[in-house]
Amino acid sequence: xxxxxxxxxxxxxxxxxxxxxGGTSLSAVYKPHFDSYRRLFWLKNVTVIALICGLGLSWxxxxxxxxxxxxxxxxxxxALAFPFDYFLFFLLLGLLAVAVMVxxxxxxxxxxxxxxGILSLWDQTRWQPWFYQYYFILAAxxxxxxxxxxxxxxxxxxxxCRLIVIFTYxxxxxxxxxxNFIKExxxxxxxxVLHFLPKAIEKIPSFAxxxxxxxxxxxALGLATRKYRNQAAVLAIATHIVILxxxxxxxxxxxxxxxxxxxxxxxxILFWNNREIGVRYLISGDRFLxxxxxxxxxxxxxxxxxxxxxxxxxxxYSGNTxxxxxxxxxxVIERLPKAIHEHIWQNTQPYFLDINRWSYGELNAPIYPEPxxxxxxxxxxxxxxxxxxxxxxxxxxxxxxxxxxVRKSEYYDCKHLDSEP
Length: 421
Known about the structure:
This protein is mostly helical. 57% of the residues lie in helices and 5% in strands.
């Protein structure tokens, strides 16, 4: 049997020969074109394997028969009961596993996109930042990467993925430019590891933490240029190594550990020693590139005025998302399943259910931090509370003021939730 790399090479040669007949020399076409197919081959495998890891680490997130409530895009969607939910989940994993073994899995990719898209409609918490990014990287390859005609197809797919990665770094940095990231998010994230470092580090001014978001912005700008592309790639890899050490040290959010590894490899595959692709070429030539610019470059700006979702705007670990807790009484606590009790603060009053901790504890993934999802979860608690539903109150803390970190709060009781999407 021929290896996958050999199949890619033969396909690249065929396309190159067609181009030669059109008047271009083989030496001018073959090498860059084969290089594009090689990058596409590795990008496909890394993305698929990373997605399998993410799905496996958060498997309860992808089934319906669980305690943590689903937040579908519409209540009119029919329930996906056991064992049908498990069947769809393992079908998705199976399609992804086969995609790794197939050299040009265009049809498989479309099947994966369709099934993953359907599952995401039943629960908005599944719209995790890593899933969103992987989904559109796979879409770029499916729609542009393995077309039978056109020698530019693999390059268009790669450029779409390059835009996705660049904008992820750009908005990831811009989202962190707020006081809350300095005061709360970074200390919580880095605390367990910084505890072992020399105490002199504690004397570093807090505003020095802003070098982290500025570094992410610098990575994005560097990757977009020819001259500083390799340097930006090295900086990106070093950044992900540090983040991975911090996450592992704290034991938090293991579902994004593979994402950090994947992002490091993406940078190498898409940008390392690539001097041919400039900014103008990145944003021209195909409708998918326009879509990538819109979804990952333009719409995230609207998250700052609550017109686009935070997790679709690279805001993970930024401190720039809505937060919420559900206040409950002892009578309500008695009516809730025992598995929820460990996520309820009961040391002092007021007692409250930490929705995000509950999501981490059961799904191994953070809650999708949007008011409509918080309200949907609270509706479920109201149903469980029964006659004690009057003791349930949802508190949503808005995104912080970027300069002071102060958050405004809104309160809802069970009678005034109205979370219908």
